[in-house]
Amino acid sequence: KAMLLLKKKRYQEQLLDKTENQISNLERMVQDIEFTQIEMKVIEGLKIGNECLNKMHQVMSIEEVERIIGETQDAVEYQRQIDEILAGSLTEEDEDAILEELNAITQEQMELPEVPSEPLPEKIPEASPVKNRPKPELVAAS
C-alpha cells in the first residue's frame, strides 16, 4: 500500500509539473499574442502615417516650400526694419536735424502764461464719519 501511495504521489507531482509547464506555455503564448497585436497596431499606424506623408508630398512640392520659406524670411526682415525704426534707431543725419530743431525751438521767445500772485487757499480737511458697527454676539452651540 505504501508503495502504491508513493507511486500515486509521484504521478501527481509529475502531473502538477506538466500542468505548470502547460500553464507557463499558455501565459507565454498570451503575452506573445498581445505583443504581436501591439506590433500590428504600430505597423498600421506607420502605414497610415506614411500614406498621410505621401498625400502631403503630393500637395506641397519642394519649390512651394522654398517659396513659402523665402516669403517668411522677407516678412521677418521687413518686420525687423519696422522694429528698428520704431525703436528709435536714427541715423546721425536724423539726430543732427533733431538737435537743430530743438535749438531753434529753445532760441525762440516763448510767451508763458502769467502765474497768479494770490496765495493758494488752504484746504480744510473734512472729518470723515466713523461708523460704529455692532459687535457680533457669541452664541453657545447647542
TrEMBL record:
Superkingdom per UniProt: Eukaryota
Which keywords has UniProt assigned to this entry?
A: Coiled coil, Endosome, Membrane, Protein transport, Transport
> Which Pfam families does the UniProt entry name for this protein?
Snf7 (PF03357)
Species, as recorded: Pygoscelis adeliae (Adelie penguin)
GO CC field: ESCRT III complex; multivesicular body
- Which positions, given as ranges, span the membrane? none
Q: What is this protein called?
A: Charged multivesicular body protein 6
Upper lineage is: Eukaryota, Metazoa, Chordata, Craniata, Vertebrata
Question: Region annotation Disordered: residue ranges?
Answer: 107-142
Q: Please give the family membership noted in the entry.
A: Belongs to the SNF7 family.
Q: Name one GO biological process term.
A: protein transport
> Which residues lie in coiled coils?
9-36
**Subcellular location field:** Endosome membrane
